[in-house]
Amino acid sequence: MLISITNTAEPATDLGFLLHKNPSNLHSADLSFGKAHVFYTDAEPHRCTACLLLELDPVQLVRGAQQLEDYVNDRPYVSSSFLTVAISRIFGTALSGICQKRPELVTQPLPLEISVAVLRARGDQDLLPQLFEPLGYRVASKTLPLDPHFPEWGDSRYVSLNLQAEVTVHDALSHLYVLLPVLDDHKHYYIGDAEVDKLLRHGEGWLSRHPRRQLIVQRYLRRKPDLMNAAFARLLDEESAAVEAGETSTEQSALAEKDLERPMTLHTQRLNQVAGRLKELGARSVLDLGCGEGKLLRRLLADHAIERIAGMDVSHRSLEIASARLRLDRMSERQRKRIQLFQGSLLYRDNRLAGFDAAALVEVIEHLDPPRLAALERVVFEFARPQHILITTPNREYNALFPTLPAGKFRHGDHRFEWTRAEFTTWAQATAARFAYQVRFEPVGPVDEQHGAPSQMALFTLPQAVSA
C-alpha cells in the first residue's frame, strides 16, 4: 500500500522538516505486520513528494492458520488501519504537531496534494467528498478495473484517491489517520476504550463540527455501542462545556482567549508539544498542575509508557468536567489505576505532589499574582521536586499580532501578568539557579522574526537526570 504527500510551496523541501525524514535518505522501519519505507520521488525547491510504502506480510499475520482464505485477501495493498498504524509509527512526531527544528512550520498551511494508491470504497465512492470536502479538500477519485487486460470484467470495488488543499501537515495526517479506516470500514486490531481516546485526540478541532461525524464515529469504532456512546458523549461535552460550567466571567475570558488564538491552533499545538516532550523525556509518572478540564491528561492517558498520571486543579468544577470527559467511571480497572484527580493549590506544600518523574504547568503561572510566585516555586521546585518541569506561558510581545486584542490588554481576563521573552528567561534562569535545576527554552507556535512565538516554554531538568 502506498500513499504520497506533495508540497509545492517554496522551499518545498520544508516537508522533510515537518515529517522528520531527510529527503536525501531512504528510511525503513520494521513493524509487527511488515515493513515501512519512506522515500522521496521529488525533492526540489518548487516540489517535494514524500511517499510511505507499506509492505505487508499476510503469512506472518496469520501464521498457524489452517484455512487458505486467511492468506488470500486484499490487506497487502489496500489502504487500511495497517497504514494508519504505520503513519502513527513513522510520522508520529508530525502527527503530534511537533517540529523542534522549525516549529513555525507546524501551523503553516501548505498547498498539499495527497494520493492514496488503492482504497476500498465498498460501494461508497460518493462518501469520499462527503468526508473530505468539509475539511477543505478538493477530491478526485478513480475506480480501478478488476484487470486492465480484461476490461469486460468490469470495475472493482477499489478506487485511487487524490486530495488537494491548503492545510497543515499535522491536520492532513490527522484526517488520514481517522478517515482511512472509516472508508475501509475495517480494523485489524482490538477495538477498546483506547480507540475512543485516539479518535477524539486526532479529531480534535474538526470532528465535532463535521457533518458526517456520526458515520465517522460508528465506522471508526466498529459500531460498538458502548464505545460510540462514550465518544458522542465526549463530543457533546466539548460543545457544551461552557454551558455546563455556567459561563462565569473567568470561563468567558478563557473562551475569548481560545477564539483569539484559534487561527493558529495554538491551544492544540501547545498541548501536543508538551505531551511530545514528556514522551521524549521517557517520564513514567507525570503530574499535570492546573489540569483544568483534562485535555493534557487525555493525551497522557493515550501514552501507555506513562504508568502513573495525576491532575491537580484548584477548581472543583473543572475536575468534575475533566472526570466526565475522561470517562473515569467507565474505564477499565487497569486504566483507572493509572490516573488520579484531586483538588489542591499550588501555593501550599502538598505531599501528594512528591515522587513524580515530571510535572507540567501549561499556561498556569500567569494566573497568579506575581508576589505569590515565590510560594509556587517552593511547592514545585523544592518540595515536589520532579526530575523534569515543563512550564508554558504567553509571550506578551506577540500580542501585537492579534488584530482583535486592544493594545495593553491581556489575552485572558484572569491573567495577572504576561511576560516578554526576556522577562520569562530572567525568571526561569533565576528559579533554576535557586533550586539547582538546568533550564532550556522553546517557542510554542509560529515564530515571528520581531515578536517571537505566541507562547514560550521552559524545560527544567535536574542535573542528575541530564547525566543519566
TrEMBL record:
Any GO molecular function: metal ion binding
Named cofactor requirement(s): Mg(2+)
Record-linked SUPFAM superfamilies: S-adenosyl-L-methionine-dependent methyltransferases
Enzyme class: transferase
Residue stretches making up the Hen1 N-terminal domain: 1-235
GO biological process terms, semicolon-separated: regulatory ncRNA-mediated gene silencing; RNA methylation
Listed InterPro entries: 3'-RNA_MeTfrase_Hen1_bac (IPR024026), Hen1 (IPR026610), Hen1_N (IPR024740), Hen1_N_sf (IPR038546), Methyltransf_12 (IPR013217), SAM-dependent_MTases_sf (IPR029063)
Membrane as UniProt keyword: no
Documented EC number(s): 2.1.1.386
UniProt keyword GTP-binding, yes or no: no
Substrates-to-products reaction catalysed: small RNA 3'-end nucleotide + S-adenosyl-L-methionine = small RNA 3'-end 2'-O-methylnucleotide + S-adenosyl-L-homocysteine + H(+)
Pfam families, per database record: Hen1_L, Methyltransf_12
Keywords, in A-Z order: Magnesium, Metal-binding, Methyltransferase, RNA-binding, RNA-mediated gene silencing, S-adenosyl-L-methionine, Transferase
Domain Methyltransferase type: 287-379
NCBIfam families: bacter_Hen1 (TIGR04074)
Family: Belongs to the methyltransferase superfamily. HEN1 family.
PANTHER family registered for this protein in UniProt: HEN1 (PTHR21404), SMALL RNA 2'-O-METHYLTRANSFERASE (PTHR21404:SF3)
Protein name stated in the entry: Small RNA 2'-O-methyltransferase
